[in-house]
Amino acid sequence: MDRYAVVGNPVAHSRSPDIHRMFAEQTGESLSYDRILTSVEKFDACVTAFFQSGGLGLNVTLPFKQQAHDLAGELDDAAREAGAVNTLMATPDGLWGGNTDGNGLVRDLTRNHDVALAGLRVLVLGAGGAVHGVIGALLRGGVAEIVIVNRTHDRAVRLARRWSDPRIRAVRSEACVDSFELVINGTSASLRGEVPKIGESVLGSACLCYDMVYASEETAFMTWASSRGARAVDGLGMLVEQAAESFYIWRAVRPRTPPVVQALRALG
Ligand code: NAP
């Protein structure tokens, strides 16, 4: 059977095997998808061994996305921009690396939440790996402006400079007083029940607040936003959409994502 896997540390919590099993059932593709736990020291050897033993594709999660970027001989534009890879594939020319996080977010926003990105004013909270992966896709989606606010301001400044695009700039939290139509929380604050420091004036009318974190219950950021009248959604759709992008890269078949999101919500 064609073999795929997700590699990370920790990896036991990863929902990718469930997602890819559902994609395979839905599309009639015959494949297996496992979890692989490894260490920073063993990551390169582990990936090489997986592909040498006939494995066809890997998803890469924390903390190895940058190492996967450095290991891949060929990169797609998104991986190059982000400096991070979440999808690896063996090709006749060697190891290919892509990053599907940005397209996953954009597909979730546009197809599942009816957001038209063209001309939108966007506030992005955070400047870590996840945000690096989505900026390029948002810019390509035609947003009018991206303001980045991060707890460590210097990281936001460095991130904004990676794109020489006049639509993107870094602003300190206390100086962020404009209002936005889309606010994306790309921090991990919700994992600890915290909300990034930001004034409620950022919430424009009909503002959508998107937390990249997904959970069985409303996240702290979603509660903060919805209690102030904004629409709030979590990042489960992005997780499934970025997985669908990987599945498409590997199998050239595009699975339907809404039933998979629904099934994952039912599993809790
Ligand atoms: P990361 O590289 O570790 O970056 C974490 C970011 O969160 C940094 O900008 C950090 O600020 C900020 N942060 C952490 N705690 C904070 C707090 N209490 N208040 C304000 N800011 C805080 O992590 P990442 O890879 O970017 O991932 C971020 C989140 O996105 C994770 O929770 C991950 O689960 C989620 N994610 C979801 C998907 C999806 O498919 N839905 C995909 C990728 C990631 P500093 O720079 O100041 O430390």
Give a quick precis of the structure.
This protein has 2 domains: 2-99 and 238-267, 3-Layer(aba) Sandwich (Rossmann fold); 102-234, NAD(P)-binding Rossmann-like Domain (Rossmann fold, 3-Layer(aba) Sandwich). Helix content is 38%, strand content 23%.
Describe this structure in words.
The chain is of the alpha/beta class and 268 residues long. It folds into 2 domains: 128 residues, Rossmann fold, CATH 3.40.50.10860; 133 residues, Rossmann fold (3-Layer(aba) Sandwich). It is built from 10 helices and 12 strands. The strands form 2 sheets. The chain has a 6-stranded mixed beta sheet with strand order 2-1-3-5-6-4, with helices on both faces. Helix 1 packs across helix 9, helix 5 crosses helix 6 and helix 5 crosses helix 9. The longest helix has 16 residues. The radius of gyration is 18 Å and the shape is globular. The structure holds NADP nicotinamide-adenine-dinucleotide phosphate (NAP). The site of NADP nicotinamide-adenine-dinucleotide phosphate has 25 residues, from helix 6 and helix 9.
